[in-house]
């Protein structure tokens, strides 16, 4: 425990790195996952096929493999060579998570009555306008709980970055446990930090749900 | 003409179409859903200002006909022209054409996450590029006109069915349509609400709006329609004035059908 207090800067740096990984990956996954979902429900069959293939491939691949690809395999073929580690981690996590976001958002799209999309097209909105003004806003309202679950899983998944040399929470925890007999206290401390992050996501989800339930 | 009925001033954005020809012209239209032949050689021409009621048994293709006219369904044969212009393929031109054709659905289809006012202003703002303030002023006028002006800030779920359908009509009118399609606008409504919606429609008809109305409301057909079109099994079986059609149907199928709906 004393170790932790003495070197709390290291702990806080690790916490900050995990926060960066989670926030950046979360934003990228939400954006890309939503685009994928729009492609999957859209009228253009090439895009539909591409998005479907992406989701199938990515969802059936372990996240660890995704990291191996981005950190080890890709630089061998000249990709991501000078890319900072943080960004590589964000890429690996986002590529993986966006497939799950896509499926969650798509379930929400399917929950929006088709008639509303038809009404939007009937007043002259294009497919893109119909998606952004009518379908997606309602789809998001319907999928707050499942999307929150995906983001929570994603936050914990950022710990795989430790294997590839990022000193985020899990990486830092191993550093401390390697140098200390007091494993339990260290585990507990780091677990609490993850719980804090995840609880923030849960609280955000509950807040959004409450706000959106009021507005209709 | 419509503008005066709706108490609107000069702000109406699109002038009546100047193109040649009938408001709507369907020639030899055919449509299949798989093996099911739902529209069979439909010929139908609707003049500007004309009100046509389409009537017929369930599954006879009335909705499909309406939806084909603004290309929510594609057709497999024949042609559809609006004011002399053929329906565009997918894309911007189609969206622009749809904005000139108002559509009112059986199930209202209001945007659930938007207020009544936002439902009515969305099209003018997004499609016509109207300024928000102007769009809102016009929307409020239209909402007053259909009798739901005091509900403007509410969400659709807070309104009765009749009120929702009148909002849906205002939403369509906000685009200054050249033509209005109504697909059984009152059949999801409780009896006491049917009249309030029909009154609005009768008003529109009197104001000179071109309308195609799928409905079994004989009262509306007799008061407002210039012509009744009877469909059965995907084909137009009979066309006549409302009086002639209801008192003196020529075809066996129309007589059967009228006998059934008159029993209720
Ligand atoms: N998307 C679709 N796919 C397959 N068949 C369809 C589809 N839409 C309609 N049909 C079929 O086409 C036929 C005509 O349907 P349509 O909805 O046009 O009839 P309708 O006259 O409007 O009937 P109702 O009075 O019940 O509304 C019906 O047999 C219907 O089952
Ligand atoms: Mg129908």
Describe the structure.
- The complex is a heterodimer of chains A (216) and B (264).
- Chain A is mainly alpha-helical and 216 residues long.
- In chain A, helix 5 (85-111) packs across helix 7 (127-142), helix 6 (114-122) packs antiparallel against helix 7 (127-142) and helix 8 (144-157) runs antiparallel to helix 10.
- Chain A starts with a helix and ends with a helix.
- Chain A has helices spanning 2-6, 8-41, 45-59, 63-76, 85-111, 114-122, 127-142, 144-157, 169-178, 183-214.
- Chain B has 264 residues and is α/β, with parallel strands linked by helices.
- Chain B has ten helices and ten strands.
- Chain B has helices spanning 2-5, 62-69, 92-99, 116-126, 132-145, 161-173, 191-206, 218-224, 242-247, 252-263; strands spanning 24-33, 36-46, 51-55, 77-82, 85-86, 101-104, 179-183, 211-214, 227-232, 235-240.
- In chain B, the strands form two sheets. A six-stranded mixed sheet of chain B has the order 6-7-8-3-9-10, with helices on both faces. In chain B, strands 2-1-4-5 form a four-stranded antiparallel sheet, with helices on one face.
- The termini of chain B are far apart.
- Residues 1-17 of chain B have low confidence and may be disordered.
- The interface between A and B is medium-sized, with 21 and 30 residues.
- The structure holds adenosine-5'-triphosphate and magnesium ion.
- Chain A: Belongs to the binding-protein-dependent transport system permease family. HisMQ subfamily.
């Amino acid at each position: 425990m004393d170790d932790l207090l003495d070197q709390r800067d290291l702990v806080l740096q690790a916490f900050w790195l995990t926060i960066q990984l989670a926030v950046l990956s979360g934003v990228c996954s939400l954006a890309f996952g939503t685009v994928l979902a729009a492609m999957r429900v859209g009228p253009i069959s090439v895009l539909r096929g591409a998005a479907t293939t992406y989701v199938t491939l990515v969802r059936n691949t372990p996240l660890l493999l995704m990291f191996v690809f981005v950190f080890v395999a890709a630089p061998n073929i000249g990709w991501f060579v000078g890319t900072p580690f943080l960004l590589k981690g964000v890429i690996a996590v986002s590529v993986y998570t966006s497939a799950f976001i896509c499926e969650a958002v798509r379930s929400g799209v399917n929950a929006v009555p088709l008639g509303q999309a038809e009404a939007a097209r009937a007043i002259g909105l294009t497919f893109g306008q119909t998606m952004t003004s009518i379908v997606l806003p309602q789809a998001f309202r319907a999928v707050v709980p499942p999307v929150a679950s995906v983001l929570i899983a994603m936050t914990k998944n950022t710990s795989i970055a430790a294997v590839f040399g990022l000193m985020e929470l899990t990486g830092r925890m191993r550093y401390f446990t390697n140098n200390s007999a007091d494993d339990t206290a260290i585990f507990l401390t780091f677990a609490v930090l993850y719980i804090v992050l995840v609880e923030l996501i849960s609280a955000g989800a509950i807040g959004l749900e409450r706000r959106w339930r009021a507005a209709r | 003409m419509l503008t005066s009925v709706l108490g609107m001033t000069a702000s109406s954005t699109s002038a009546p179409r100047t193109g040649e020809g009938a408001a709507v012209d369907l020639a030899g239209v055919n449509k299949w859903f798989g093996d099911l032949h739902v529209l069979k050689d439909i010929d139908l021409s609707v003049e500007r200002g004309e009100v046509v009621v389409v009537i017929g048994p369930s599954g006879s293709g009335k909705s499909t006909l309406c939806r084909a006219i603004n290309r929510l369904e594609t057709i497999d044969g024949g042609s559809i022209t609006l004011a002399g212009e053929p329906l565009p393929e997918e894309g911007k031109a189609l969206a622009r054409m749809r904005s000139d054709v108002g559509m009112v659905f059986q199930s209202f289809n209001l945007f659930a996450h938007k207020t009544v006012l936002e439902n009515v202003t969305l099209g003018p703002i997004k499609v016509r590029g109207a300024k928000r303030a102007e769009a809102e002023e016009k929307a409020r006028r239209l909402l007053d006109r259909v009798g739901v002006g005091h509900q403007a800030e509410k969400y659709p779920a807070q309104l009765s069915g009749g009120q929702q359908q009148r909002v849906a009509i205002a939403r369509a009118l906000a685009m200054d349509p050249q033509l209005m399609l109504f697909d059984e606008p009152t059949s999801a409504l409780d009896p006491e609400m049917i009249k309030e919606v029909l009154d609005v429609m009768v008003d529109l008809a009197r104001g000179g709006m071109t309308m195609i109305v799928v409905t079994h409301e004989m009262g509306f057909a007799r008061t407002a329609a210039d012509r009744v079109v009877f469909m059965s099994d995907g084909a137009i079986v009979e066309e006549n004035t409302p009086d002639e059609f209801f008192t003196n149907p020529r075809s066996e199928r129309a007589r059967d059908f009228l006998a059934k709906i008159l029993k209720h």
